[in-house]
Design brief:
Layout: H1 7-12, H2 33-42, H3 45-49, H4 52-66, E1 70-72, H5 79-83, E2 88-91, E3 95-98, H6 104-108, H7 116-133, E4 139-145, H8 147-156, H9 164-172, H10 174-198, E5 202-207, H11 215-236, E6 242-246, H12 253-260, E7 264-266, H13 273-280, E8 285-290, H14 294-297, H15 299-312, E9 318-322, H16 332-343
Parallel strand pairs: 1-4, 4-5, 5-6, 6-7, 7-8, 8-9
Antiparallel strand pairs: 2-3
Helix pairs in contact: 2-4, 4-7, 7-10, 8-9, 8-10, 9-10, 10-11, 11-12, 15-16
The protein binds coproporphyrinogen III.
Coproporphyrinogen III binds next to strand 3.
Length: 344
């Protein structure tokens, strides 16, 4: 099947489909026993990311089990910092750790953009395997972290509640902060271009910490970097849509959509669907925003919430998804129920 005929790409081109195409953030993940088995075989999460055969296998697992309309490359947004020379490791049960960047001297130790492909080559191989092995109707989504979100991890060396270390560098040493943002933005463009050349048909930019950007700098550090990436990709691959995810940016999402030029906007769990349908959907395709907690509990609340989303977004282009990643304690049977209700 040609890319443009796949259901995900049809809504990204502006069509309204009922039922809408569906996929889930973190659909390859620890809630699935087959994921846990392959991850154990790989040894660690990072080993799994860098083993193309196994990374392709876990990407395919939720497609085999549920027949989602789209599959998302299995990798992580923190591979780009690692390719730029940051140390990266994962602490079991806690999350990522990186070497920190708090000064011009730390920044100077990072590597130039041209060298990232040495580290990231296995990811492009995973994409090539997936384009060969996915069912003909399943769209393949590539992804990267948005520059601000990636910068927050590179600066603090871990996830934080309020991204205070990143904001401190932004205000205290704006020159180093801007250079870091530029470097990440350039690396992200080159990374996504290679993913597209390997077979990604759509790409998504995860700005998971967009909500921690203060209002006066939101445009500068969330919207304009997204626009730079959208514009650069459009020069090289004009037919590949970009999905933005400015998580927890509230009402700022509206200007983000208008200015960045993204083809679709993923909305987080906090967003009121009725507001998004009224204000955002006339401007762009909307994706989201089922509460992942409903996949832990299931039951009538899950069914009602799925039907509500389907109805609320029925009058425009819409991609069914969660408002954030599915959690390890989700019940795989509730995922099937969610899809059955959506497609009934
Ligand atoms: O969505 C998918 O299925 C594709 C793969 C994917 C992963 N991470 C796999 C992963 C994607 C798109 C990401 C994006 C990502 N990674 C983000 C942005 C989206 C979001 O969730 O806000 C962020 C902030 C990261 C950084 C990261 N990676 C953190 C903070 C953690 C630890 C938290 C956790 O859930 O354990 C990871 C680990 C990670 N990335 C896992 C997976 C499946 C769990 C690792 C494991 O198997 O132990």
């Amino acid at each position: 099947m040609k890319s443009e005929d796949k259901r995900l790409l049809r809504v990204l081109a502006g069509e309204t489909l009922d039922p809408p195409p569906a996929w889930m953030m973190r659909q390859a993940g620890r809630y699935l026993p087959e994921y846990r088995a392959t991850r154990a075989e790989a040894g660690s999460f990072l080993d799994l990311c860098y083993r193309p055969d196994l990374a392709a296998e876990v990407t395919l697992q939720p497609i085999r089990r549920y027949g989602f309309d789209a599959s998302i490359l299995f990798a992580d947004i923190l591979l780009v910092p690692q390719a730029l020379g940051a140390d990266l490791w994962f602490v079991e049960g806690e999350g990522p750790r990186l070497s920190t960047i708090t000064s011009a001297a730390d920044f100077a130790k990072l590597k130039p953009v041209e060298t990232i492909h040495e580290t990231l080559a296995p990811i492009y191989e995973t994409v090539r395997i997936l384009r060969r092995e996915l069912p003909a109707e399943t769209a393949l989504i590539g992804f990267a972290g948005a520059p601000w979100t990636v910068a927050t991890y590179m600066i603090a060396g871990q996830g934080t509640k309020d991204q205070a270390p990143a904001r401190k560098l932004m205000y205290g040493d704006p020159e180093t902060f801007d250079k870091l943002m530029d470097l990440i933005t350039e690396a992200t463009c080159e990374y996504l271009i290679r993913q597209i050349e390997a077979g990604a048909e759509v790409v998504k930019l995860f700005d998971s910490w967009a909500g921690a950007l203060p209002g006066p700098v939101f445009e500068k550090y969330a919207t304009l970097p997204a626009k730079r990436i959208v514009d650069r990709l459009a020069q090289v691959h004009p037919n590949v849509p970009v999905i933005g995810f400015p998580r927890q940016a509230g009402e700022k999402v509206e200007r983000f959509i208008e200015t960045s030029g993204i083809a679709a906007c993923a909305i987080d769990t906090n967003v009121d669907p009725a507001w998004a349908a009224r204000v955002l959907q006339p401007k762009t395709c909307v994706q989201g925003n089922l509460d992942p907690a409903l996949l832990i509990t299931g039951g009538p609340m899950l069914e009602r919430s799925v039907m509500n989303l389907r109805e609320t977004f029925a009058n425009g282009p819409y991609i069914f998804n969660l408002g954030h990643g599915i959690t390890p304690d989700a019940n795989p049977e509730h995922v099937q129920t969610m899809l059955d209700v959506l497609r009934r």
